[in-house]
Amino acid sequence: MPTSSRAHAPAHRACGLDFGTSNSTLGVVGDGVPALLTLDHGSTTVPSAVFFGLDHAHAFLIGRDAVAAYVDGQSGRFMRSLKSILGTPLVDEKTQLLRRRVTFKEIVRAYVEALKHRAEQQAGCALDRVVHGRPVHFVDGDAEGDARAEATLADIARQAGFSEISFQYEPVAAAFDYERSVAAETLAVVADVGGGTSDFSVVRLGPERRGRDERKSDILASGGTRLGGTDYDRALALAAVMPALGFRTLMTRGDVEVPSGPYFDLATWATVNRLYDKKVLPELKLVRRDAREPKLLARLIHLIEMRRGHSVLIEVERGKIELSDADETAIPLDWLEAGLAPKATRALFETATAPLADRLRKTLGETIAAAGLAPAAIDAVFFTGGGSLVPSVRRAVRAVLPDAAVVDGDRFGAVGLGLTIEARRRYG
Q1: CA triplet 365, 367, 371: central angle to 5 degrees?
Q2: Is residue 372 in a domain?
């Protein structure tokens, strides 16, 4: 389990920071009670999004303001799911940002710095010590890459103004939040299905345990995989939306499909901006000329010319959420073409995401086995993270733990609250 460094700083100068793929939170302890700060239009969650605009009013925005500026059609550069670049070579690559080139690491630092500034304004004091959340694995099967990702995140936090930084696994943090409501000794699995990763921890919890300074022996095992809500977005986008833009259609010669690369970039939050490279449009126009269904390619070209790639994913994400309760939904793209609204069904969605569910079951089973336990020994499964709303995700977890009691936590706040509890424990 990740550990802390120093342990005797004033509590009001320490915080817990959950920098998430889709949303972020920051919490402090006041009067002995952990609480998340309301940092974005009265909400405790801040979308992990940035917008760099051409005019002064939109020069640099984060969270809901960034999303609104993009949706409203302001001229500039929009980015979301910033966390997904950690552990990849992309973090040190430079990208064109209006009139200059900057690294993606600098963009993440600007977001974290802005989040910290807002928190300090609300808390009324400097926040210089932080317990930072992290997934169990930033990358799968690459210990060195995983260590580099944590080191990068620590360096970003230092550059943003934190002087003392420590880490805690996100599902372990969520367990500490859950423990506040546990009335008796409980052997629990925390299932944290976030935007970019799915993480599991097997933890012993209880009223007599939560006051202890050392909890390492209570964390029996943690495991995870780089799979989350954005992967479900991509699967739904490829299955339901991209065919309306020419995906999997054929060229005029032979049975060769049109190039799939642009569609995968468009379906992935972290790579949408690749479509705006100056080489992409000329290449796609050549493809359109030799495509059997040039009208569909024309839609894709028009979308890129409008720089509305993220708008597609915003609508796909909404559709994914709607399919949690509905059997069918439409994904409106009438801003691209009047009346264009591809249909998405839950059956289509679950077929497209079946391999993801298999990975979840496998990862959870391995985590429980690493704890030296049988699934029947688990008393409760605690769900957190936005991805835990997806019915097939819940079924995958329940397939491994059919007898465990189901507990739903604060899907977007449990990790941040647990990190704040840990900040109090580590820093005073």
Answers
A1: 115
A2: no
